[in-house]
Each structure stands twice: as structure tokens, then as C-alpha cells.
């Protein structure tokens, strides 16, 4: 395996304890959760509940029943956006959203006359929370904001946005894809009503896991209907959580793995993870600036970003840079628009895209050194 610098897409490597736990579940338990009364099924229930508890512990949620599992944050965001917003509502969002937010909003704009306002931000993705207050209208029902951009890395002032949302009695939905597990999040302190998360990035869990944590009373219609393992005579989804939103056999193996990777994250501590990543980001920003003709997008300040750095090398097409990094140096990075066209519009890179490195907990300064050396020789040619 070469040097993996695509942790913003999914984290790699995964902790052995997580892989071993999933293997143990599949070899020795096997039963699904929420559907049986025999010992193995009860054990599967316990493991799934443990994961809900771990999520609460990480984000300061108060009720494990309000942790809903989905297959990824895209499904979480779609569930909340589609299940909460009604015809003619107004929503405020950032100008740097991932398509997991942007497309469901645009679809509702087309189909249900949803009104969308995007908060202004600099071309480095820096938002001033006060600008959001000015966008509020009588029909504003939701603010949906990414916690950190997956292209520029910029961390958004979620705590301040939360205060504004609370003051105006507007719900706040946060996309934590790039921060959960990498940056401290407290749904109570930050007044986050719904925190959407994905399991396979900095939570170090397997792909196919994600969810949302409900921290308020809010009427959200479920996206799916189907079996929940109980109350089978009801013709509609039960009205209690989590069953209301978890139709169909869950990804028990994935959730068991996620529970174990969360335990691993807790053992290290998110503060320590952030400390290590911030120092690597700082190092990467410094070293990358040595490369001839490099243009780095986003704030050049490690305290303002997560481990996401996007750049271009002069006129060399981003695809060529990424291809050479892979083919010649075995370095894995992501290239293109990163499913976030609005961020690239801000950066002026909608046509050419950019190269993005995603720094994770298991990266080292050595990895950055090898990357910089490779970029220097690509740039020289
Ligand atoms: C900010 C942001 N939101 C949403 C997503 C979608 O994540 P998933 O593919 O796990 O649903 C990503 C993934 O890259 C992301 O970076």
C-alpha cells in the first residue's frame, strides 16, 4: 500500500479492533438486531445499542433512542431535509455545501417551491454568522450548514449559528461529515438540533454506516417505510424513535464495527486527535508552500481548517497531477470537483477542478515529505 491521503473521502487504515469486532460478529453471532428473542439476537441488539450510546457520548446526546442509523450521511441529510421541510418553506445554507445537501435542497426548490438563501462567504469559505441572521425571513424553518468544507477545509462558526437559530426558533441541521471524530462537537453547547454524521470518515468505521442524532422535538417524516421488527400490525411507521426511521434490516455488521471504532476514538480522545491532525495540517501547509507554482485554496491557518487542502500546480491539469502522484509515486489523492460545485465556483475552479489531500489521524510528517518531493518534481517538468 502506498501513501493514503484521501481521508476526506473515507478514512484508511481502519483500526484492527474494529475489523476484528466485525469479524467476530459475523463468525460468532450473525443474527440481526431488533427482530429476535434468542441469545444471539439479544447480543446483536446489545451491540447496536452500544453504538448508539457511543454516538451520544461523543456528541453529548442525551438519549440513545434518538440516534438513528442510516447507510451514510447522504441518507441522513435526505431524510431530515425531505421529512421536515414543507411547501413554501425557506431554508438558509452555506455557499460551500456538498451535493448531499445541495441536491436535496435544489430538488425541493424545483418540486415544492422551497426558497433557498445561501450565506455569503469569502472565497476561502469563511462565513460571518451575523450575515445569516440578516437572511432570516418569516417562513425560515431550517438552517442547514456544513461544519467544515470538504474542499476548502474551512471550519464554520457552528456555535454562533446555533445561537442565532435558537434565538429565532429555527431548527439547525449540521453536516458533520468532515468533522465528526476529528473536531469536538457538542450538540447541547452548540444548539445543534440535528447532527448528521457519517461512520466511515474520521469516526474510523466501515463504509455503509452513518446516521443522525436528534436533539430536539421536531416532526420529521420518515424517508422509508417497512419492517421494524415490532408493532407489525401498524399500517404506518411507528411514531417512536429510532424505529420510525429504521425500516428494513439494519447494517448490523457495520454498526457493530462503528461501535468499536467509536470506542477507539474515545480511547484516544477527539481533543488529542485534533491536536495531532492540526500539527500535521500546519506542517503540510508550510511544506506545500515550497512547491513552485502551487496555488493553495482555503485558509492557510491550521486552526481554521480540518485536514483538507485543495490546490493546483500552475497550468498542469489537476487530473494529470493526481494521475502522476498515483502512477509514479503511489500517493493517493482526490481530484475533480469533490461533489461540491458551489465551493469550486467560489474558488474559480469549476472548470479545472483541483487536487485535494485529505489528512487523517494515521498520516505522518513523512507522508507529507514524500508528497512534497513528488509535487516538486511534477511542478519542475
Ligand atoms: C461535507 C460532506 N457532506 C456529505 C458527504 C457525503 O458523505 P457520504 O458519502 O458518506 O454520504 C461528504 C463526503 O465526502 C462530505 O464531505
Quick tags:
381 residues; alpha/beta; Aspartate Aminotransferase, domain 1; Aspartate Aminotransferase, domain 2; 2 domains; 4-stranded antiparallel sheet; binds pyridoxal-5'-phosphate
Rg of Cα set: 21 Å
Structural class: alpha/beta
Q: What overall geometry do the principal axes of the alpha carbons give? A: globular
Low-confidence stretches: none
CATH superfamily of the largest domain: Type I PLP-dependent aspartate aminotransferase-like (Major domain)
CATH topology of the largest domain: Aspartate Aminotransferase, domain 2
Strand content: 5-15%
SSE run: EHHEHEHEHEHEEEHHEEHEEHEH
Mean pLDDT: 96
Largest sheet: 7 strands, mixed
Q: Indicate the percent of residues in helices.
A: 25-40%
Number of strands: 13
Please state how the strands of the largest beta sheet are arranged side by side: 2-8-7-6-5-3-4
Distance between the termini: 26 Å
The CATH architecture of the largest domain can be given as 3-Layer(aba) Sandwich
Helices, by number, come to: 11
Describe the structure.
There is one protein chain. It contains 11 helices and 13 strands. It has 2 domains: 3-12 and 269-380, Aspartate Aminotransferase, domain 1; 16-268, Aspartate Aminotransferase, domain 2, CATH 3.40.640.10. A 7-stranded mixed β-sheet has the order 2-8-7-6-5-3-4, with helices on both faces. Helices cover 39% and strands 15% of the residues. With 381 residues, the protein is α/β, with parallel strands linked by helices. The radius of gyration is 21 Å and the shape is globular. Bound molecules: pyridoxal-5'-phosphate. The site of pyridoxal-5'-phosphate has 13 residues, from helix 3. InterPro entries: Aminotrans_V_dom, Cys_dSase-rel_unknwn_funct, Cys_dSase_SufS, Cysteine_dSase, PyrdxlP-dep_Trfase, PyrdxlP-dep_Trfase_major, PyrdxlP-dep_Trfase_small. Belongs to the class-V pyridoxal-phosphate-dependent aminotransferase family. Csd subfamily. GO terms for molecular function: cysteine desulfurase activity; pyridoxal phosphate binding; transaminase activity. Residues 3-371 form the Aminotransferase class V domain.
Amino acid at each position: 500500500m502506498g501513501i493514503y491521503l484521501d481521508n476526506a473521502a473515507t478514512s484508511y487504515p481502519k483500526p484492527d479492533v474494529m475489523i476484528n469486532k466485525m469479524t467476530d460478529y459475523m463468525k460468532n453471532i450473525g443474527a440481526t438486531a431488533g427482530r429476535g428473542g434468542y441469545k444471539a439476537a439479544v447480543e446483536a441488539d446489545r451491540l447496536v445499542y452500544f453504538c448508539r450510546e457511543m454516538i451520544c457520548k461523543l456528541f453529548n446526546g442525551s438519549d440513545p433512542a434518538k440516534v438513528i442509523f442510516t447507510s451514510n450521511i447522504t441518507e441522513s441529510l435526505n431524510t431530515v431535509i425531505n421529512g421536515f421541510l414543507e411547501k413554501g418553506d425557506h431554508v438558509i445554507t452555506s455557499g460551500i455545501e456538498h451535493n448531499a445537501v445541495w441536491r436535496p435542497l435544489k430538488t425541493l426548490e424545483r418540486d415544492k417551491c422551497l426558497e433557498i438563501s445561501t450565506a455569503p462567504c469569502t472565497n476561502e469559505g469563511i462565513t460571518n454568522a451575523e450575515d445569516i441572521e440578516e437572511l432570516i425571513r418569516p417562513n425560515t424553518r431550517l438552517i442547514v450548514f456544513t461544519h467544515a468544507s470538504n474542499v476548502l477545509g474551512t471550519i464554520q462558526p457552528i456555535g454562533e449559528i446555533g445561537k442565532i437559530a435558537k434565538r429565532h426558533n429555527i431548527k439547525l441541521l449540521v453536516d458533520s461529515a468532515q468533522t465528526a471524530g476529528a473536531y469536538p462537537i457538542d450538540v447541547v453547547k452548540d444548539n445543534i438540533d440535528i447532527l448528521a454524521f457519517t461512520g466511515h470518515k474520521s469516526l474510523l468505521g466501515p463504509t455503509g454506516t452513518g446516521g443522525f442524532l436528534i436533539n430536539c422535538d421536531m416532526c420529521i417524516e420518515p424517508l422509508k417505510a417497512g419492517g421494524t421488527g415490532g408493532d407489525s400490525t401498524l399500517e404506518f411507521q411507528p411514531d417512536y424513535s429510532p424505529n420510525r426511521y429504521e425500516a428494513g434490516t439494519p447494517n448490523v455488521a457495520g454498526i457493530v464495527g462503528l461501535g468499536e471504532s467509536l470506542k477507539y476514538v474515545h480511547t484516544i480522545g477527539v481533543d488529542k486527535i485534533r491536536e495531532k491532525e492540526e500539527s500535521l495540517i500546519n506542517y503540510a501547509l508550510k511544506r506545500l508552500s515550497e512547491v513552485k507554482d502551487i496555488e493553495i485554496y482555503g485558509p492557510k491557518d491550521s486552526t481554521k481548517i480540518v485536514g483538507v487542502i485543495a490546490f493546483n500546480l500552475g497550468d498542469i491539469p489537476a487530473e494529470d497531477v493526481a494521475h502522476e502522484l498515483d502512477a509514479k509515486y503511489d500517493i493517493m489523492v482526490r481530484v475533480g470537483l469533490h461533489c461540491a460545485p458551489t465551493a469550486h465556483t467560489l474558488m474559480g475552479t469549476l472548470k479545472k477542478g483541483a487536487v485535494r489531500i485529505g489528512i487523517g489521524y494515521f498520516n505522518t510528517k513523512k507522508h507529507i515529505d514524500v508528497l512534497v518531493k513528488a509535487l516538486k518534481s511534477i511542478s519542475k517538468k
